[in-house]
Amino acid sequence: MDQFIQYTPTEVVFGKETENQAGAEVKKWGGTKVLVVYGGGSAKRSGLLDRVEASLAKEGLAFEELGGVKPNPRLALAEEGVKKAVEMQADFILAVGGGSSIDTAKAVAHGAANPEEALWDIWTKKVPLTKSLPVGAVLTIPAAGSEMSDSAVLTNEAIGKKAGINTPFNRCKFAIMNPELAATLPKYQIACGVTDIMMHTMERYFIPESQCEMTDEIAEGLLRTVIKNGPKVLENPSDYNAMAEIMWCGSLSHNGLTECGRGKDFSVHKFGHALSAKYDVAHGASLAAVWGAWAKYQYDEETVLWRFARFAEKVWGITEGSDHKRATEGIERTVAFFHSLGMPTSLHELDIPNPSDEDLRALSMDATQQDTVKLSRIRKLGAQEVYEIYQ
Ligand code: NZQ
Ligand code: ZN
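== Iron-containing alcohol dehydrogenase ==
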C-alpha cells in the first residue's frame, strides 16, 4: 500500500425530496447571492429548478440563473457565467444537473474568484489557482461523480480541446442526491452513466503490483453493485432502490475512495476526451468504445495479469482456468456487459464508422499532448501505442 491522502470533504444530503433543502444548505455554507447553473432544460421541464429556487427564496437568498449548459460543456458558456457571477457579486455557485452543469459551476467559481485571469489559463495551470467560490450541487444523473470529485472538465471549442483540472477547489461543499430525480433520464444517458461509474473504479483498479486488500474489496463490491443494479435502472428508471445504489456508487467511485493506497491511471479517459473533443460523443460512450481494446492491449503485462484475473474472479465470478484464461474471460464479460446496456464497444459502433488513418493519428496526438506524455501505468502508451489501440 503506497502513501496516500484521503480527503473527501463534500457533505452528502441523500434521499427523497432532499432538493428542497438546497436553500438551507447554501445558507449553511455561507452563500447569500447564488448563481444557479443548469443544462439544456431537463431540470426546468421536470419542475426541479422551480423547487430548488423556491427553497433558495424561502431562505431569503438572492439568485440568478445561467442555463444552457451542454454535455461536454463549453468554455465559452463558463466565461459567460463568470461575467454574470462577477456582475451580480455572487458568493455561491449552485449546479442543478449532471457532470456538465457541475463542472461549469466549478469553472464559473474559479473564474469569478479570479476575474483578472483568463479562465483557460487557470484551467491549463498557466496561472495557479489559489482561491475560488464555494460550489454546491443538486445531482440529476448518476455518472460523472463530479458532485464529490476534485476534478472538472471543459471543452475549449476554439481549439478543439477537452481538458480537465484537478484541484481541491473543485470539491463541492455539499451534494444533494435524490435518486427520484434521475427517473426522467433517457436510457442512453443511464447506460453512459453506468459505464462511467464502472470506469472510475476500473481506472483505479488495474494498477501494477498494487496490494491494497481493503481498497480492492471496496472496488469489487462497488463494481458488483453497479453490474447488479445497472440493468434494473435501465429497465425501470423509477426503481428507487436500484437508482439509489447506482447514485451512491457514482459518488463513491470518483471521490478518491477506490484509489487509496495505489492512486489511479485514467488513460482510457484520455482516449475518451480526445474522442469527445473531436466528435462531441457522450463521455460514457467514449469510454465503452475504447476500454475493451485498451484492456486487451494491457492485460498480459506481467505486473498486472494477476489483477485482471482477480477482477474476473471477484467481479464476474470466473474461478476456473489459468490467470490468462480468467483475465481474458473477464475482459470479454465486461465488454459484453457494456454492449448489453446499449453502449458502443468500438469506434464503429460509436458512430465513427470510417475514421481515416489521419483521424486516428490526430486523436492519438491529442490524447498524448502531441506525444509529449506517456499514458497508463501498465505499458507506457505514447502516440504510436495509443494509435494502435484506437485502431
Ligand atoms: O442538459 P439537460 O437538459 O439537463 O440534459 C442532460 C444532458 O442532455 C441529461 N439529463 C441529466 N439529468 C437528467 C437529464 N435528462 C433527463 N432527466 C434528468 N434527470 O443528460 C445529458 C447528459 O448530462 P451531463 O451533465 O452531460 O452528464 P454527465 O453527468 O455524464 O456529465 C458528463 C460530463 O462530465 C465530465 C464528462 O467528461 C462530461 O463532460 N466528467 C466529469 C468528471 C468530474 N468532474 O469529476 C469526471 C468524469 O470522468 C467526466 O470526465
Ligand atoms: Zn468519467
